[in-house]
Design brief:
- This protein is globular.
- Helix content is 80%, strand content 0%.
- It has one domain: Sodium/glucose cotransporter.
- By secondary structure, the chain is an all-alpha fold.
- α13 crosses α14.
Protein backbone atom coordinates (compact mmCIF):
# COMPACT_ATOMS: atom_id res chain seq x y z
CA UNK A 1 0.00 0.00 0.00
CA UNK A 2 1.23 3.50 -0.81
CA UNK A 3 2.42 5.68 2.08
CA UNK A 4 2.96 8.69 -0.16
CA UNK A 5 0.63 11.68 0.33
CA UNK A 6 -0.69 13.98 -2.35
CA UNK A 7 1.87 16.62 -1.27
CA UNK A 8 4.70 14.12 -1.77
CA UNK A 9 3.33 13.18 -5.20
CA UNK A 10 3.22 16.85 -6.17
CA UNK A 11 6.87 17.26 -5.16
CA UNK A 12 7.86 14.22 -7.23
CA UNK A 13 5.78 15.45 -10.17
CA UNK A 14 7.50 18.85 -9.94
CA UNK A 15 10.86 17.07 -10.00
CA UNK A 16 10.01 15.11 -13.15
CA UNK A 17 8.60 18.20 -14.87
CA UNK A 18 11.70 20.18 -13.93
CA UNK A 19 14.26 17.72 -15.33
CA UNK A 20 12.24 17.17 -18.49
CA UNK A 21 11.98 20.93 -18.89
CA UNK A 22 15.76 21.27 -18.66
CA UNK A 23 16.09 18.57 -21.30
CA UNK A 24 13.76 20.43 -23.64
CA UNK A 25 15.64 23.70 -23.08
CA UNK A 26 18.98 22.03 -23.77
CA UNK A 27 17.68 20.34 -26.93
CA UNK A 28 17.12 23.77 -28.50
CA UNK A 29 20.82 24.59 -28.02
CA UNK A 30 22.15 21.44 -29.66
CA UNK A 31 23.36 22.13 -33.20
CA UNK A 32 26.25 19.69 -33.62
CA UNK A 33 27.64 16.44 -32.30
CA UNK A 34 30.21 18.43 -30.27
CA UNK A 35 27.34 20.29 -28.55
CA UNK A 36 25.58 16.99 -27.85
CA UNK A 37 28.64 15.09 -26.62
CA UNK A 38 30.73 17.81 -24.91
CA UNK A 39 28.40 20.79 -24.33
CA UNK A 40 30.57 22.89 -26.65
CA UNK A 41 33.63 22.51 -24.33
CA UNK A 42 32.55 25.65 -22.48
CA UNK A 43 31.49 24.54 -18.98
CA UNK A 44 32.41 26.76 -16.02
CA UNK A 45 33.53 25.71 -12.55
CA UNK A 46 30.15 25.48 -10.81
CA UNK A 47 28.26 23.32 -13.33
CA UNK A 48 31.31 21.12 -13.96
CA UNK A 49 31.93 20.55 -10.24
CA UNK A 50 28.30 19.91 -9.25
CA UNK A 51 27.74 17.65 -12.25
CA UNK A 52 30.88 15.63 -11.53
CA UNK A 53 29.85 15.10 -7.90
CA UNK A 54 26.22 14.28 -8.76
CA UNK A 55 27.32 11.80 -11.41
CA UNK A 56 29.31 9.78 -8.91
CA UNK A 57 27.01 9.88 -5.88
CA UNK A 58 24.39 7.76 -7.64
CA UNK A 59 22.45 4.84 -6.26
CA UNK A 60 25.52 3.13 -4.83
CA UNK A 61 26.37 6.23 -2.78
CA UNK A 62 22.94 6.44 -1.13
CA UNK A 63 21.07 3.10 -1.33
CA UNK A 64 24.13 0.86 -1.58
CA UNK A 65 26.14 2.71 1.09
CA UNK A 66 23.15 2.84 3.46
CA UNK A 67 22.62 -0.88 3.01
CA UNK A 68 26.28 -1.56 3.67
CA UNK A 69 26.32 0.45 6.93
CA UNK A 70 23.04 -1.22 7.94
CA UNK A 71 24.46 -4.71 7.40
CA UNK A 72 28.11 -4.45 8.56
CA UNK A 73 28.10 -1.36 10.83
CA UNK A 74 30.12 1.84 10.78
CA UNK A 75 32.80 0.25 8.60
CA UNK A 76 30.34 0.66 5.71
CA UNK A 77 31.20 4.39 5.62
CA UNK A 78 34.40 3.41 3.81
CA UNK A 79 32.42 2.88 0.61
CA UNK A 80 31.83 6.62 0.21
CA UNK A 81 34.99 7.85 1.94
CA UNK A 82 37.24 5.60 -0.15
CA UNK A 83 36.42 7.81 -3.16
CA UNK A 84 37.96 10.98 -1.71
CA UNK A 85 41.72 10.24 -2.09
CA UNK A 86 41.36 9.55 -5.80
CA UNK A 87 39.42 12.76 -6.42
CA UNK A 88 42.06 14.84 -4.64
CA UNK A 89 45.15 13.22 -6.15
CA UNK A 90 43.83 12.88 -9.70
CA UNK A 91 42.48 16.42 -9.55
CA UNK A 92 45.92 17.80 -8.68
CA UNK A 93 47.98 15.65 -11.05
CA UNK A 94 45.85 14.23 -13.85
CA UNK A 95 42.93 16.47 -14.74
CA UNK A 96 45.00 19.40 -16.04
CA UNK A 97 47.28 17.48 -18.42
CA UNK A 98 44.34 15.47 -19.72
CA UNK A 99 42.29 18.62 -20.42
CA UNK A 100 45.11 19.86 -22.67
CA UNK A 101 44.50 16.98 -25.05
CA UNK A 102 41.15 18.49 -26.13
CA UNK A 103 39.84 15.06 -27.14
CA UNK A 104 36.41 13.48 -26.74
CA UNK A 105 37.00 10.02 -25.27
CA UNK A 106 39.68 7.96 -23.51
CA UNK A 107 39.74 5.39 -26.37
CA UNK A 108 40.50 8.30 -28.71
CA UNK A 109 43.49 9.16 -26.51
CA UNK A 110 44.62 5.51 -26.56
CA UNK A 111 44.76 5.55 -30.35
CA UNK A 112 46.74 8.80 -30.41
CA UNK A 113 49.13 7.43 -27.79
CA UNK A 114 49.25 3.74 -28.78
CA UNK A 115 47.26 2.26 -31.68
CA UNK A 116 43.86 1.82 -33.32
CA UNK A 117 43.62 -1.69 -31.83
CA UNK A 118 43.99 -0.28 -28.30
CA UNK A 119 41.22 2.21 -29.05
CA UNK A 120 38.84 -0.46 -30.31
CA UNK A 121 39.49 -2.79 -27.37
CA UNK A 122 38.99 0.00 -24.83
CA UNK A 123 35.82 1.27 -26.51
CA UNK A 124 34.18 -2.16 -26.54
CA UNK A 125 35.17 -2.98 -22.94
CA UNK A 126 34.03 0.42 -21.68
CA UNK A 127 30.72 0.22 -23.51
CA UNK A 128 30.04 -3.14 -21.83
CA UNK A 129 30.96 -1.75 -18.40
CA UNK A 130 28.79 1.35 -18.80
CA UNK A 131 25.79 -0.71 -19.90
CA UNK A 132 26.05 -2.83 -16.75
CA UNK A 133 26.61 0.27 -14.58
CA UNK A 134 23.44 1.99 -15.83
CA UNK A 135 21.42 -1.07 -14.82
CA UNK A 136 22.48 -0.54 -11.17
CA UNK A 137 20.94 2.93 -11.14
CA UNK A 138 17.67 1.88 -12.75
CA UNK A 139 17.39 -0.92 -10.19
CA UNK A 140 17.81 1.58 -7.33
CA UNK A 141 15.14 3.91 -8.73
CA UNK A 142 12.72 1.01 -9.09
CA UNK A 143 13.45 -0.26 -5.58
CA UNK A 144 12.80 3.16 -4.04
CA UNK A 145 9.57 3.86 -5.92
CA UNK A 146 8.12 0.38 -5.36
CA UNK A 147 8.97 0.36 -1.63
CA UNK A 148 7.29 3.69 -0.98
CA UNK A 149 4.32 3.48 -3.31
CA UNK A 150 3.59 -0.23 -3.64
CA UNK A 151 4.01 0.10 -7.39
CA UNK A 152 5.29 -2.95 -9.25
CA UNK A 153 9.09 -2.65 -9.30
CA UNK A 154 9.35 -3.43 -13.02
CA UNK A 155 6.91 -0.65 -13.84
CA UNK A 156 8.79 1.74 -11.54
CA UNK A 157 12.08 0.94 -13.30
CA UNK A 158 10.52 1.55 -16.72
CA UNK A 159 9.04 4.92 -15.69
CA UNK A 160 12.30 6.26 -14.25
CA UNK A 161 14.22 4.99 -17.28
CA UNK A 162 11.86 6.74 -19.69
CA UNK A 163 12.43 10.00 -17.85
CA UNK A 164 16.23 10.13 -17.94
CA UNK A 165 16.35 8.70 -21.47
CA UNK A 166 14.02 11.47 -22.64
CA UNK A 167 16.15 14.39 -21.51
CA UNK A 168 19.48 12.68 -22.31
CA UNK A 169 18.46 11.81 -25.88
CA UNK A 170 17.05 15.29 -26.42
CA UNK A 171 19.70 17.55 -24.89
CA UNK A 172 22.86 15.44 -24.68
CA UNK A 173 25.59 16.43 -22.23
CA UNK A 174 24.24 19.97 -21.87
CA UNK A 175 20.95 18.58 -20.53
CA UNK A 176 22.81 16.07 -18.38
CA UNK A 177 25.05 18.77 -16.85
CA UNK A 178 22.25 21.15 -15.87
CA UNK A 179 19.94 18.41 -14.60
CA UNK A 180 22.94 17.21 -12.58
CA UNK A 181 23.28 20.66 -11.01
CA UNK A 182 19.63 20.63 -9.95
CA UNK A 183 19.86 17.02 -8.81
CA UNK A 184 22.99 17.65 -6.72
CA UNK A 185 21.19 20.42 -4.83
CA UNK A 186 18.07 18.29 -4.32
CA UNK A 187 20.09 15.28 -3.14
CA UNK A 188 22.32 17.12 -0.68
CA UNK A 189 19.43 19.18 0.68
CA UNK A 190 17.26 16.07 1.14
CA UNK A 191 19.79 13.87 2.95
CA UNK A 192 21.11 16.78 5.04
CA UNK A 193 17.61 17.25 6.48
CA UNK A 194 16.76 13.55 6.77
CA UNK A 195 19.89 12.55 8.71
CA UNK A 196 19.23 14.67 11.84
CA UNK A 197 15.50 13.87 11.74
CA UNK A 198 16.03 10.10 11.85
CA UNK A 199 18.98 10.51 14.25
CA UNK A 200 16.79 12.15 16.92
CA UNK A 201 13.92 9.74 16.22
CA UNK A 202 16.31 6.88 17.05
CA UNK A 203 17.08 8.45 20.43
CA UNK A 204 20.20 10.45 19.63
CA UNK A 205 23.59 9.10 20.81
CA UNK A 206 22.28 7.29 23.89
CA UNK A 207 19.34 5.60 22.20
CA UNK A 208 21.32 4.46 19.18
CA UNK A 209 24.21 3.14 21.28
CA UNK A 210 21.79 1.14 23.42
CA UNK A 211 19.99 -0.32 20.41
CA UNK A 212 22.98 -1.59 18.44
CA UNK A 213 25.47 -4.33 19.34
CA UNK A 214 29.09 -3.51 20.17
CA UNK A 215 30.26 -5.19 16.97
CA UNK A 216 28.34 -2.59 14.95
CA UNK A 217 30.93 0.04 15.94
CA UNK A 218 33.94 -1.91 14.70
CA UNK A 219 35.67 0.09 11.95
CA UNK A 220 37.72 -3.03 11.11
CA UNK A 221 34.68 -5.22 10.41
CA UNK A 222 35.41 -5.36 6.67
CA UNK A 223 39.09 -6.16 7.12
CA UNK A 224 41.64 -4.25 5.04
CA UNK A 225 41.36 -5.88 1.60
CA UNK A 226 37.86 -4.67 0.70
CA UNK A 227 38.28 -0.97 1.66
CA UNK A 228 41.72 -0.87 0.05
CA UNK A 229 40.25 -2.34 -3.12
CA UNK A 230 37.57 0.38 -3.10
CA UNK A 231 40.28 3.05 -2.92
CA UNK A 232 42.00 1.44 -5.91
CA UNK A 233 38.67 1.13 -7.71
CA UNK A 234 38.11 4.87 -7.25
CA UNK A 235 41.48 5.70 -8.84
CA UNK A 236 40.79 3.37 -11.76
CA UNK A 237 37.27 4.66 -12.28
CA UNK A 238 37.90 8.42 -12.02
CA UNK A 239 41.01 8.15 -14.17
CA UNK A 240 39.40 6.21 -17.02
CA UNK A 241 35.59 6.36 -16.84
CA UNK A 242 34.11 8.29 -19.74
CA UNK A 243 31.44 9.99 -17.60
CA UNK A 244 34.14 11.75 -15.54
CA UNK A 245 36.71 12.17 -18.30
CA UNK A 246 33.97 13.72 -20.44
CA UNK A 247 33.60 16.49 -17.86
CA UNK A 248 37.33 17.17 -18.02
CA UNK A 249 37.13 17.52 -21.80
CA UNK A 250 33.93 19.61 -21.56
CA UNK A 251 35.44 22.03 -19.00
CA UNK A 252 36.42 25.40 -20.44
CA UNK A 253 40.01 25.16 -19.12
CA UNK A 254 42.45 23.20 -16.95
CA UNK A 255 41.63 25.10 -13.76
CA UNK A 256 37.95 24.19 -14.13
CA UNK A 257 38.75 20.51 -14.60
CA UNK A 258 41.00 20.45 -11.52
CA UNK A 259 38.44 22.31 -9.41
CA UNK A 260 35.68 19.84 -10.33
CA UNK A 261 37.72 16.86 -9.15
CA UNK A 262 38.87 18.42 -5.87
CA UNK A 263 35.37 19.74 -5.10
CA UNK A 264 33.95 16.24 -5.56
CA UNK A 265 36.50 14.85 -3.10
CA UNK A 266 35.44 17.37 -0.45
CA UNK A 267 31.76 16.65 -1.16
CA UNK A 268 32.33 12.94 -0.64
CA UNK A 269 33.77 13.40 2.85
CA UNK A 270 30.70 15.37 3.95
CA UNK A 271 28.15 13.33 2.01
CA UNK A 272 29.57 10.01 3.23
CA UNK A 273 29.27 11.10 6.86
CA UNK A 274 25.66 12.25 6.39
CA UNK A 275 24.62 8.98 4.75
CA UNK A 276 26.36 7.00 7.50
CA UNK A 277 24.47 8.88 10.24
CA UNK A 278 21.15 8.20 8.50
CA UNK A 279 21.97 4.50 8.01
CA UNK A 280 23.16 4.01 11.62
CA UNK A 281 19.97 5.61 12.90
CA UNK A 282 17.90 3.41 10.59
CA UNK A 283 19.64 0.30 11.91
CA UNK A 284 18.60 1.33 15.44
CA UNK A 285 15.01 2.16 14.44
CA UNK A 286 14.29 -0.69 12.03
CA UNK A 287 16.40 -3.76 12.87
CA UNK A 288 16.00 -7.07 11.07
CA UNK A 289 15.26 -5.93 7.52
CA UNK A 290 15.41 -8.91 5.18
CA UNK A 291 17.30 -6.95 2.53
CA UNK A 292 19.91 -4.39 3.60
CA UNK A 293 19.45 -2.26 0.47
CA UNK A 294 15.94 -1.50 1.74
CA UNK A 295 17.35 0.48 4.69
CA UNK A 296 17.12 3.92 3.13
CA UNK A 297 13.73 3.36 1.39
CA UNK A 298 12.22 1.99 4.61
CA UNK A 299 13.61 4.95 6.58
CA UNK A 300 11.95 7.34 4.12
CA UNK A 301 8.68 5.42 4.11
CA UNK A 302 8.28 4.87 7.84
CA UNK A 303 10.19 7.71 9.54
CA UNK A 304 9.86 10.79 7.35
CA UNK A 305 6.98 13.27 7.61
CA UNK A 306 4.80 14.41 4.72
CA UNK A 307 6.68 16.70 2.37
CA UNK A 308 10.13 15.54 3.42
CA UNK A 309 9.19 12.09 2.16
CA UNK A 310 8.56 13.55 -1.29
CA UNK A 311 11.82 15.52 -1.19
CA UNK A 312 13.76 12.36 -0.31
CA UNK A 313 12.08 10.36 -3.04
CA UNK A 314 13.11 13.11 -5.43
CA UNK A 315 16.63 13.00 -3.92
CA UNK A 316 17.03 9.28 -4.62
CA UNK A 317 15.62 9.70 -8.09
CA UNK A 318 18.05 12.60 -8.56
CA UNK A 319 20.99 10.43 -7.47
CA UNK A 320 20.10 7.56 -9.77
CA UNK A 321 19.06 9.63 -12.77
CA UNK A 322 22.13 11.83 -12.56
CA UNK A 323 24.44 8.82 -12.72
CA UNK A 324 22.27 7.00 -15.25
CA UNK A 325 22.04 9.95 -17.64
CA UNK A 326 25.78 10.66 -17.35
CA UNK A 327 26.68 7.04 -18.04
CA UNK A 328 24.15 6.87 -20.84
CA UNK A 329 25.50 9.99 -22.54
CA UNK A 330 29.03 8.60 -22.11
CA UNK A 331 28.05 5.27 -23.65
CA UNK A 332 26.44 7.07 -26.59
CA UNK A 333 29.63 9.12 -27.00
CA UNK A 334 31.77 5.99 -27.07
CA UNK A 335 29.54 4.29 -29.61
CA UNK A 336 29.25 7.35 -31.84
CA UNK A 337 32.89 8.46 -31.79
CA UNK A 338 34.90 5.30 -31.20
CA UNK A 339 32.79 2.64 -32.88
CA UNK A 340 30.48 4.21 -35.48
CA UNK A 341 32.70 7.00 -36.81
CA UNK A 342 36.04 5.26 -36.24
CA UNK A 343 35.13 1.74 -37.39
CA UNK A 344 32.00 1.98 -39.55
CA UNK A 345 31.58 5.45 -41.12
CA UNK A 346 34.73 7.62 -40.96
CA UNK A 347 33.13 10.11 -43.36
CA UNK A 348 29.93 10.56 -41.31
CA UNK A 349 28.68 14.16 -41.24
CA UNK A 350 27.90 16.11 -38.05
CA UNK A 351 24.19 15.72 -38.73
CA UNK A 352 24.53 11.96 -39.10
CA UNK A 353 26.64 11.74 -35.93
CA UNK A 354 23.99 13.63 -33.97
CA UNK A 355 21.28 11.21 -35.14
CA UNK A 356 23.48 8.21 -34.31
CA UNK A 357 24.22 9.60 -30.84
CA UNK A 358 20.52 9.99 -30.09
CA UNK A 359 19.54 6.56 -31.42
CA UNK A 360 22.38 4.83 -29.57
CA UNK A 361 21.26 6.60 -26.37
CA UNK A 362 17.88 4.89 -26.57
CA UNK A 363 19.21 1.47 -27.61
CA UNK A 364 21.81 1.34 -24.83
CA UNK A 365 19.16 2.36 -22.27
CA UNK A 366 16.91 -0.51 -23.35
CA UNK A 367 19.76 -3.03 -23.03
CA UNK A 368 20.65 -1.67 -19.56
CA UNK A 369 17.00 -1.86 -18.52
CA UNK A 370 16.94 -5.57 -19.39
CA UNK A 371 20.24 -6.16 -17.54
CA UNK A 372 18.85 -4.56 -14.37
CA UNK A 373 16.55 -7.55 -13.82
CA UNK A 374 19.51 -9.94 -13.49
CA UNK A 375 21.39 -8.32 -10.57
CA UNK A 376 20.75 -8.33 -6.84
CA UNK A 377 23.07 -5.96 -4.89
CA UNK A 378 23.83 -2.40 -5.99
CA UNK A 379 27.47 -2.22 -4.86
CA UNK A 380 28.26 -5.57 -6.48
CA UNK A 381 27.04 -4.22 -9.84
CA UNK A 382 29.15 -1.07 -9.56
CA UNK A 383 32.29 -3.03 -8.69
CA UNK A 384 31.76 -5.60 -11.45
CA UNK A 385 31.10 -2.95 -14.10
CA UNK A 386 34.37 -1.26 -13.13
CA UNK A 387 36.31 -4.52 -13.34
CA UNK A 388 35.26 -5.04 -16.95
CA UNK A 389 37.08 -1.93 -18.14
CA UNK A 390 38.97 0.19 -15.62
CA UNK A 391 41.15 -2.53 -14.08
CA UNK A 392 42.88 -3.07 -17.41
CA UNK A 393 42.95 0.46 -18.83
CA UNK A 394 44.09 2.61 -15.88
CA UNK A 395 47.84 2.04 -16.14
CA UNK A 396 48.03 2.35 -19.94
CA UNK A 397 46.22 5.71 -19.64
CA UNK A 398 48.19 7.12 -16.70
CA UNK A 399 51.67 5.79 -17.45
CA UNK A 400 51.19 6.59 -21.12
CA UNK A 401 50.96 10.29 -20.22
CA UNK A 402 54.32 10.39 -18.50
CA UNK A 403 56.44 7.55 -19.92
CA UNK A 404 57.68 7.56 -23.52
CA UNK A 405 58.77 3.91 -23.57
CA UNK A 406 55.49 2.01 -23.10
CA UNK A 407 54.11 0.99 -26.48
CA UNK A 408 51.06 -0.29 -28.36
CA UNK A 409 51.83 -3.98 -27.85
CA UNK A 410 52.15 -3.52 -24.11
CA UNK A 411 49.00 -1.39 -23.90
CA UNK A 412 46.84 -3.84 -25.86
CA UNK A 413 48.03 -6.78 -23.75
CA UNK A 414 47.37 -4.80 -20.56
CA UNK A 415 43.90 -3.71 -21.67
CA UNK A 416 42.56 -7.09 -22.73
CA UNK A 417 44.24 -9.43 -20.25
CA UNK A 418 44.02 -7.02 -17.30
CA UNK A 419 40.25 -6.69 -17.62
CA UNK A 420 39.79 -10.39 -18.39
CA UNK A 421 41.82 -11.52 -15.36
CA UNK A 422 39.82 -9.18 -13.09
CA UNK A 423 36.50 -10.61 -14.29
CA UNK A 424 37.75 -14.22 -13.98
CA UNK A 425 38.96 -13.51 -10.44
CA UNK A 426 35.58 -11.98 -9.53
CA UNK A 427 33.51 -14.82 -10.93
CA UNK A 428 35.61 -17.85 -10.00
CA UNK A 429 38.40 -17.07 -7.51
CA UNK A 430 37.89 -14.25 -4.99
CA UNK A 431 36.26 -15.64 -1.85
CA UNK A 432 35.64 -18.96 -3.64
CA UNK A 433 38.99 -20.72 -3.44
CA UNK A 434 41.68 -20.96 -0.79
CA UNK A 435 45.14 -19.48 -0.81
CA UNK A 436 46.39 -16.23 -2.32
CA UNK A 437 44.18 -16.30 -5.43
CA UNK A 438 41.07 -16.46 -3.28
CA UNK A 439 42.25 -13.71 -0.94
CA UNK A 440 43.30 -10.96 -3.39
CA UNK A 441 40.53 -8.66 -4.59
CA UNK A 442 39.81 -8.88 -8.36
CA UNK A 443 40.60 -5.17 -8.73
CA UNK A 444 44.18 -5.82 -7.62
CA UNK A 445 44.49 -8.95 -9.74
CA UNK A 446 43.41 -7.13 -12.88
CA UNK A 447 45.49 -4.01 -12.26
CA UNK A 448 48.65 -5.96 -11.37
CA UNK A 449 48.31 -8.09 -14.50
CA UNK A 450 47.73 -4.94 -16.53
CA UNK A 451 50.74 -3.08 -15.06
CA UNK A 452 53.05 -6.08 -15.43
CA UNK A 453 52.10 -6.71 -19.04
CA UNK A 454 52.32 -3.02 -19.95
CA UNK A 455 55.92 -2.80 -18.72
CA UNK A 456 57.21 -6.26 -19.67
CA UNK A 457 55.70 -6.47 -23.16
CA UNK A 458 56.74 -2.89 -23.92
CA UNK A 459 60.34 -3.72 -22.95
CA UNK A 460 60.36 -6.87 -25.06
CA UNK A 461 59.10 -5.08 -28.19
CA UNK A 462 60.34 -2.03 -30.14
CA UNK A 463 59.82 1.50 -28.77
CA UNK A 464 56.82 3.55 -29.95
CA UNK A 465 57.18 5.26 -33.35
CA UNK A 466 58.17 8.92 -33.42
CA UNK A 467 54.61 10.17 -34.09
CA UNK A 468 53.45 8.72 -30.76
CA UNK A 469 56.32 10.44 -28.93
CA UNK A 470 55.52 13.68 -30.76
CA UNK A 471 51.94 13.44 -29.45
CA UNK A 472 53.24 13.31 -25.88
CA UNK A 473 55.59 16.21 -26.46
CA UNK A 474 52.68 18.23 -27.84
CA UNK A 475 50.99 18.29 -24.45
CA UNK A 476 54.27 19.04 -22.65
CA UNK A 477 53.78 16.76 -19.67
CA UNK A 478 57.00 16.34 -17.69
CA UNK A 479 58.11 14.72 -14.46
CA UNK A 480 59.05 18.12 -13.10
CA UNK A 481 55.52 19.43 -13.66
CA UNK A 482 54.04 16.38 -11.98
CA UNK A 483 56.18 16.85 -8.87
CA UNK A 484 55.18 20.52 -8.57
CA UNK A 485 51.60 19.42 -7.87
CA UNK A 486 52.57 18.01 -4.47
Amino acid sequence: MSTVSIIDWLIIAAYFIGVLGIGRWAAKKIHSDDDFLLAGRSLGKLPTALSTAATDFGGSGIIGASGLVYSVGVAGVYWNWSAAPAWFILGLTFAGPLRRLALTTIPEYLERRYSGAARKAAAILHLLGLTVSISAQTMVAGLMISTLTGMNQTLAVIISTLCFVSYTAAGGLLAVIWTDVAQYLILVFGVAIAAPVVFFMAGSFEGIAASLPETFWDFKALGWMEPLAWVALAFFMYGTHQAFIQRIFAAKDEATAKFAYVFTGVSYLVYGAIIAVAAISTAALFPGLEKADLAFPVMVRDAMPVGLKGILMAAVLAATMSTSSSNLNSAATLFSVDIYKRMLRPDASEKTMLVVARISTVVIAVISLICSFFFQRVIDIVVFSTLIYSAGVFFPVLIGLFNYRVNAQGALSALVLGGTSAVISSLFLYGRVGGLLGAIHPEFVGSLVSLTLLIVVSRLTPPPPEEKIAFLRSIDVSKEELMKKF
